[in-house]
Design a protein that fits this description.
The complex is a heterodimer of chains A (257) and B (76).
Chain A lengths: L4 E6 L18 H15 L5 E5 L7 H4 L3 E4 L5 H11 L4 E7 H7 L1 H10 L4 E6 L29 H4 L5 H5 L5 E8 L3 H19 L4 E7 L3 H4 L3 H15 L3 E5 L1 H4 L4
Parallel strand pairs in A: 2-3, 2-4, 4-5, 5-7, 6-7
Antiparallel strand pairs in A: 6-8
Helix pairs in contact in A: 1-8, 4-5
Chain B lengths: L4 E5 L9 H5 L5 E3 L12 E3 L9 H5 L5 E7 L4
Antiparallel strand pairs in B: 1-4, 2-3
Classes of the chains: A alpha/beta (257), B alpha+beta (76).
Chain lengths: 257, 76
């Protein structure tokens, strides 16, 4: 009898560096990194991709990918990506930003990059908290959510409401692909990967600004176990940040990948 | 014959977060409490027969620590 040949169902993508990440156990930043690496491998873009790292937990993203990376000042990743893309229009340029970086400090840069219709891709990690600095309230923190700077829970009367970036950016004429996905279970992770793929396809076809917002977990600062943090995304974050396609260019909507 | 699969755990990358343990449809994964990785975590392992090589553990793994294999039946 011939021994059955083993088939590799899954292995670490080549675009992901072998370095161990500094992320806490169970943090879905790692899932987002992996999905980007898988998409770049599938599309064969690794040799011509330039990433722009933000400030935040993902500040060391440049260490974790096997392609070119630059580090931007806090919130200025879309501005830096604009410059790179305009000087090197043949390269694929994307930014990887958290909610503090994109929705707070970098609000001006992201709005104007989208309004100008820059041909860049933005991967936006929304975990409703400032992770790196120790769990302070972010613009995306849920009403009533306890953080180190809102110990009584976010009071919307005095601290305002969370900002929904996908909905805002979808109103921009320059945007070609704006969607929100979640990383809380295998089915949604697969959908998130497809969204990242379509965002890069948008850029490759020159159809405008593309952004994928990913609801992500922060077990350490939410003070939950990694598994409970995923349940928190499903039960608490998705009602506030509904998943869906907020703006999809017709050409991308008809694309089959 | 049931499909047979198995996983290989990169113990340098596994942080013992347990997301794969919760996601495994066959419930054959657990943290190996008798072992420690170089970083001091209990790595995940297969504690029983029954892995089908579906790859769901690898989809949820934040550290890409898992390689998933599946036996391909050879036609006689």
């Amino acid at each position: 009898m011939v021994a059955p040949a083993p088939k590799i169902v899954y292995q670490r993508p080549a675009s992901l560096a072998t370095r161990v990440t500094h992320y806490c156990p169970g943090c879905t930043h790692g899932v987002a990194h992996r999905l980007i690496a898988e998409v770049l491998d599938e599309m064969g873009l690794r040799e011509k991709t330039i990433g722009v790292a933000p400030v935040g937990c993902s500040v060391f993203a440049y260490n974790y990918f096997n392609h070119d990376y630059v580090e931007a000042a806090h919130g200025r990743a879309p501005a830096m990506a604009t410059g790179i893309k305009r000087v090197l229009p043949q390269q694929t340029v994307y930014t990887y930003q958290g909610d503090g970086d994109l929705a707070s400090i970098g609000m001006a840069e992201i709005m104007h990059a989208a309004a100008r219709g820059e041909q860049i891709t933005v991967v936006f990690i929304n975990n409703a908290i400032y992770g790196m600095t120790g769990g302070q309230m972010a613009p995306t923190t849920l009403p009533g959510m306890v953080t180190t700077s809102s110990p009584g829970g976010r009071d919307v009367e005095s601290m305002g409401f969370p900002i929904r970036m996908s909905e805002i950016l979808a109103k921009m004429d320059g945007a070609g692909y704006i969607v929100r996905r979640s990383l809380h279970d295998p089915a949604n992770i697969r959908k998130a990967k497809k969204a990242i793929r379509l965002a890069f396809e948008t850029q490759e076809r020159g159809l405008g600004f593309s952004m994928v917002e990913l609801l992500s977990s922060c077990p350490t600062n939410w003070k939950l176990t990694p598994v409970d943090a995923l349940t928190f995304i499903e039960d608490r974050m998705i009602p506030m940040f509904p998943l869906g396609d907020y703006k999809v260019n017709d050409e991308i909507a008809n694309l089959r990948v | 014959m049931a499909v047979k699969g198995w996983i290989e755990v990169n113990e340098l990358h596994c942080k013992g977060c347990g997301l794969c343990v919760a996601a495994c449809p066959q419930n054959v994964m657990s943290l190996d409490m008798d072992r420690l990785t170089p970083k001091g975590y209990h790595p995940v392992h297969l504690h029983a027969e029954g892995c089908t090589g579906c790859g769901i553990c690898a989809i949820v793994c934040p550290d890409a620590a898992l390689t998933v294999y599946r036996e391909v039946p050879v036609k006689a």
